[in-house]
Structures are given as C-alpha cells and as structure tokens.
C-alpha cells in the first residue's frame, strides 16, 4: 500500500495513497475524490456501504480516506419555520456528492431503543406540541441478502447538526449511507449532498419510506410538502 507524509496542524503524519484498500469498493474503484466528494451516482448511496481508514491503519486525520471523520464539513444555518420548527439550511454552496456530516448521537441497543421510543411516544401524548425525538434506525444488509445488522442512533439528547435535518418523503437534498472504518466494530451513518446545492437550500434526508399513518399509537404529521408525501413521518415499532 503506497503512502506519503503530509502536514497536519503542526506535525507531519502518514497518509495513504490511491491504492489503499480502505478507499476502494469491491470493484477496486475509489469512493471519494481528494476533497471528500463521492465519485459515483449519488442516487445509489443509500444502497452502499463505504469503507474508510480507521484505528487499524497507520495513517492519521490528514489521510484522504478519513473524509467523514473530521466533523461538520459545511456551513449550516439554523432557522425557525412556522410548521417545521427548526430548519437547517446550507450556509454556502455545496457540491454534488460532498460529505456534509455524520448523523451523530448515542449508539444504543435495540431494547434501549424500544424503551426510549415508548417514552418519547408517551411524552408526545402528554404534550403534542413538544419537539419530536431524533432516534434513527439504520440497517446494513449482509452480502447474503438474507439478514441485516441494525444500528440505533439516538440524537435526541446528544447529537450534532444533523439532529436538525428534517425528513423529506421525496428523498431530500442529502443521501444517508453507512461507512465502515477499519478497526471500528460499528458502522457510522454519513450524509452526502445528492446534487449541487445553492446557499440557503434546506438540508433534508429520507428517514424512511413515506407513511400514511396507522403505525405506532402516536405518529407525527409530516410537513415536507413533497409530492410523494402521504401525510405522516416514517414510523415503525422498534
């Protein structure tokens, strides 16, 4: 594996070359360019699992195959909306395929996720105007196609800017994909721009398939306004 030395802050550290397997897909193609932009069709991102360098590698933060590990990558503005509550907007133009940020929060077990969801539903019944929760369930389908691994990320109490990215039944301006880092046991959920975004574009992604209600006892109305919207936020029993 070819590697070079690059400056990072006040020190020099090892970075991987283009042949590093951590930055390649199963066909040997690079996932991201030198700026951390996805090189493929962004419509396929939700079906992919990307790979990056991690604790098992000898490289450091300057390595180009650690693009999703450097925090929020764009400027984000938070504003209040009459029907949506908090809305996140791009603070500057964003390139198609650009990494935006991780969906960060507490990674919890499925029993704990079920317990918290019941608590959040109860709170919503007691106070319908209360802010919604930010418990996201992501699934990684195994190569066999017969099973999947599930990760529960709860950003309700602790998270990052992605906590304010609203749902869009039409797919949204961002695509959610899983990233596996060498040496990390759990995947991370990463958000990339589906297309070129102008300054002021709302940052949204698809939490799940459109819902017509009838899921959990307390299901929130959806205000995305997309043509595919069926009236309710995606919901499922954990």
Automatic annotation (TrEMBL):
Pfam families: SET. One of its GO terms (cellular component) is chromosome. Residues 218-234 form the Post-SET domain. SMART domains: SET. One of its GO terms (molecular function) is metal ion binding. Keywords: Chromosome, Metal-binding, Methyltransferase, S-adenosyl-L-methionine, Transferase, Zinc. It is found in: Chromosome. One of its GO terms (biological process) is methylation. InterPro entries: H3K9_Histone-Lys_N-MTase, Post-SET_dom, SET_dom, SET_dom_sf. This is Post-SET domain-containing protein. It comes from Elliptochloris bilobata.
């Amino acid at each position: 594996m070819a590697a070079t030395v690059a400056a990072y802050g006040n020190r020099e550290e090892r970075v991987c070359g283009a042949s590093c397997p951590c930055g390649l897909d199963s066909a040997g193609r690079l996932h991201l360019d030198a700026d951390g932009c996805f090189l493929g069709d962004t419509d396929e991102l939700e079906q992919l699992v990307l790979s990056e360098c991690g604790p098992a590698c000898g490289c450091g933060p300057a390595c180009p195959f650690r693009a999703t590990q450097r925090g929020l990558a764009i400027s984000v503005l938070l504003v209040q909306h009459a029907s949506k509550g908090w809305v996140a907007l791009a603070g500057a133009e964003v390139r198609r395929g650009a990494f935006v940020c991780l969906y960060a929060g507490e990674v919890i077990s499925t029993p704990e996720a079920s317990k918290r969801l019941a608590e959040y539903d109860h709170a919503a019944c007691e106070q319908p105007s209360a802010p919604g929760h930010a418990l996201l369930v992501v699934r990684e389908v195994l190569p066999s196609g017969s099973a999947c691994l599930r990760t529960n990320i709860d950003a309700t109490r602790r998270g990052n800017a992605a906590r304010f990215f609203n749902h869009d039944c039409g797919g949204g301006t961002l695509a959610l994909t899983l990233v596996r880092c060498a040496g990390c046991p759990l995947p991370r959920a990463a958000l990339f721009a589906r297309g070129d975004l102008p300054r002021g574009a709302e940052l949204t992604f698809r939490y799940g398939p459109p819902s017509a209600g009838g899921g959990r006892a307390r299901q929130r109305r959806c205000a995305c306004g997309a043509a595919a919207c069926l009236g309710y936020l995606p919901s499922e029993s954990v």
